[in-house]
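User: Could you check the structure of this?
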Amino acid sequence: MTKEKIAILVVDDDPSITGVLKLILEARGYEVDVAYTGTDAVQKSKAKIYNLAILDIKLPDIEGTKLLKAMRETSPKMVKIMLTGFPQLQNAIDALNDGADAYFVKPADPDKLLKTIEEKLAEQKEDREIMQEKIAVFLKARTEKLLQEME
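Assistant: Sure, the predicted structure tokens are below.
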């Protein structure tokens, strides 16, 4: 999978965490942006298309599960991975029920996180290719029908 056009948004209020994640992800060839608040994350997701977001559950201005819902509205196809230093069963259940694609407890194992990111991006790419194939088939059939009607 080519990573040149894959954009990732890392949302965490801890600059050391965002810095480490940014370094790790950029070393893998991803384009990485950082947001320190939920408000900033929503604004960035409205201004740019991200393939994936890593969202902290505890942010200064919004609960991570609420941010997850807001991000789902602005970017429904974006892969969303929750990251928390406050592991609670209810948080995990809420996050997964609200559309999180994965849930990690800090400090997350970088290898497991990267593996999950790769898997989720591969699924996203496959879904996009299937959708493009369906659209191409539809357009071809519709074009043929219109040409027949014109004859």
